[in-house]
Amino acid sequence: MSATAALPTTLAPTVPTVLDRVLEVLGEGPLTAHQIVEAVSAASPEAFGSREGLVFPLLLQLRRQGRVRVTWADAAGGRRLLHSRADAPEAGPPPLVPPPLAQHVPSVPTTKKRLDDVADRATKPLAFAPRLREEFRHEILVYLLESVADRLASGEEPGAAQREAIRDLGDPWKIGTDLARTAEGRRTVVFPATTGESLAGMAIYDLRVLAVIVAVIVFVRVQVVTAYHIPTKSMEPTLHGDPRHGDRILVNKLSGTPERFDITVFDGFGTDRKNFVKRCVALPGEKLDLHEGDIWIDGHLIRKEGAAYEALLFEVFDRARECARIAGKTGAAAGAEFETSLRARMQELWKFEGDGECGVQEDESAPFAGLRLAAPPGEESASPPQIAWHELVEDTYIDPETGDRRSGTWSVADLRLAVSVKPVPGTDARVVLRLTRGDDHTYDAVVRGDGRGVRLLADGVEVARGDDVSIPDGVATTVSFSQVDHVLRLTVDGSLVLRHDLAEPASPKRYGPASVAMVRVPRGAAWIDPVRLERDVYYVSEGPDENFVRLGPDQFFMMGDNSSNSSDSRTHGPVHRGRLIGKPLLVVWPPSRIRVPD
User: Which of 22, 186, 292, 598 would you label with 40, given CA atoms 20 to 30 Å apart?
Assistant: First the structure.
């Protein structure tokens, strides 16, 4: 057995602590704080790291224990505070009051204000001991200036030298806290050497901060923002509901009173105290009726505008989604197989009817440009060539998780159709986007090639026109036409060019009529590429036709966007103001659906 192995455990060598290193270098003679750090770092490079400023509370601790004394001494550039071991010979009595700071700051070619600010922050907790604070403020500033001077001497740029000196000093708050605790005689763990000291340091410095963080989290959780999981499909497709994989939303509890069409979280109905998320459709004091899927307040139809109009249009068909589905099947987003599949799919979804021609490009490997509709020569045909959506539109929706179309129950007459229109030059093309409302009403948006304007027709009667709107020949232009809430809107390349408010129906039906979306070319020829078809939200009535409900002064009427599959105010009654929690702030999970709900 070796001699080293035979040594008792109590005689095994120990690793010197930072305190041991400091006392060791002070045995060499009076040193400034900067010289102490340099000497200790030379022997133990990791002793201080980027927390060199902790040498100041350590030195104050040693002074209070009577193990270190300080003296003032003149030096180049100003006076310095020197530290020496108490058992070393006395070098001379220190002055009672240090000279003013300006008299002993060394002359270094760098801006001093930023360093002054750091020294001031690091000694602010010593405000109860002005003389001690002034002493350490001076010493920390001198320390920073000496560190900057060393870096300048090694060729660093002045700004970088300052930043590095401040970084290596460490956290001014921690330095000041340790100085104040040491000056007050309270326990301070500057450089923990044992596990017990590390735990004590956590209790002294971190638990208080952790308690504040926890308090803030609890306050925010209870009073400001809370998380909520969507368990049902009542708000599809706006919010995806599922017992396991439904959207998780953050709810802003400080959002205030909801406006009409705001999504709102509230604390249940009647004795049921679980949280619900629905859309507010009627406000206190209003009389609500539901007809043809639309909202009527106090006998008048509510016409959605702006963000509400856009948010409550739900996808029926989307060309981009169809392309993504085909790309998933073919394994490529381009190429002959992809283009052939896309052509076949578009001709399946958009059925050709009428006289004239309907065709596609002869080169099936070329990118799909749409369906070419060509009217017979001569006067406009009574049955022009047209493509129509292949089925009646119902309150279907696209599942946000799977992308599958969920079948609906009720016919929806309020639609928006967007197509890419490319008139064939020299054919005097005329293109009509048509939406119907049952067998009684037909709404047309007429687009003429070569820039000769656009028109809106209701039941064959012109109700609006725009002669200055240009639809050029040979150029693909996106045209969108909608009939929603008895309002006709026509947009060209995203800009609203025509709008017409239809008269409110005198006797609206309880349930909406069937509708058709189509594009026809009664004259000339044009390439038509369907882009998107959307339907309006459809609210199903479950009460009598008249006087559906009159709300009280503090009551709100809540309904789900997926009206056919929603348990809401239609069966449970209005929601009292006191039960309102807030509005969804953000969908935070799953990551693929992170967004601001509207």
Answer: 186
User: How many CA atoms within 13 Å lie on the side-chain side of 504?
Assistant: 12
Percent of the chain clearing pLDDT 90 (strictly above): 37
**Residues 384-405 as b or e (16 or more Cβ within 10 Å = b):** bbbbbbeeebbbbbbebbeeee
Residue 331 has pLDDT above 60, yes or no: yes
Q: Torsion-angle region of residue 346: left (phi > 0), alpha (psi -120 to 50) or beta?
A: alpha
In which residue are the tokens 């959002």 written? 255
Instruction: Give the C-alpha distances (Å, rounded to integers) separating 595 from 261, 318, 586, 590.
Output: 18, 20, 6, 10
What's the gap between Cα 408 and its chain centre?
32
CB 245 within 8 A of CB 203: no
Residue 411 and residue 383 in contact, taking contact as beta carbons nearer than 8 Å: no
Regarding beta strands 477-484 and 441-448, do their DSSP bridges make them parallel or antiparallel, or are they unpaired?
A: unpaired
Compute φ and ψ for 511, nearest 5 degrees: -115, 150
Q: Which helix (H) or strand (E) holds 323?
A: helix 319-330
Q: Name the DSSP letter for residue 453.
A: -
CA–CA dist 511, 186 (Å, integer): 78
Distance CA 535, CA 517 (A): 10
DSSP state of 65: T
Residue partners of 359: CB distance under 8 A and separation at least 6: 371, 372, 374
For 44-52, which contacts have Cβ atoms below 8 Å and span 24 or more sequence positions? Answer: 44/16, 44/18, 47/18, 47/21, 48/18, 48/168, 50/167, 50/168, 50/170, 51/169, 51/170, 51/171, 51/174, 52/143, 52/147, 52/168, 52/169, 52/170
DSSP string, 232-299: SSTTTTTS---TTT--EEEEETTS-SPPTT-EEEE--STT--S-EEEEEEE-TT-EEEEETTEEEETT
User: What region, left, alpha or beta, does residue 11 occupy, with left being phi > 0 and alpha being psi -120 to 50 degrees?
Assistant: alpha
CA distances from 229 to 191, 583, 588, 596 (A): 46, 14, 10, 15
pLDDT digits (tens, 9 = 90+) for 495-553: 999 999 999 988 888 787 889 999 999 999 999 999 999 999 999 987 555 557 899 99
Report the candidate in 81, 132, 127, 125 with the shortest Cα–Cα distance to residue 105.
81
**Sequence-separated (6 or more) residues with CB below 8 Å from residue 54:** 48, 170, 174, 175, 178, 190, 191
Residue 34, token pair as written in the block = 């900067």
> What was the pLDDT predicted at 111?
56
pLDDT per residue as tens digits for the range 71-86? 887 765 567 788 888 8
pLDDT digits (tens, 9 = 90+) for 459-495: 999 999 998 888 899 999 999 999 999 999 999 999 9
Q: Read out DSSP for 358-376? A: EE--S-TTSPP--EEEEPP
Distance CA 533, CA 392 (A): 12
**pTM of structure:** 0.67
Distance from C-alpha of 117 to C-alpha of 501, rounded to nearest angstrom: 65
Q: Look at 8 and 360; give whichever has higher pLDDT.
A: 360
Q: Which residue, 381, 403, 377, 408, is CA-closest to 392?
A: 408
Decide if pLDDT at 431 tops 90: yes
The residues pairing with 82 across neighbouring beta strands, listed in sequence order, are: 71
Per-residue model confidence (pLDDT) at position 182:
86
pLDDT at 462: 95
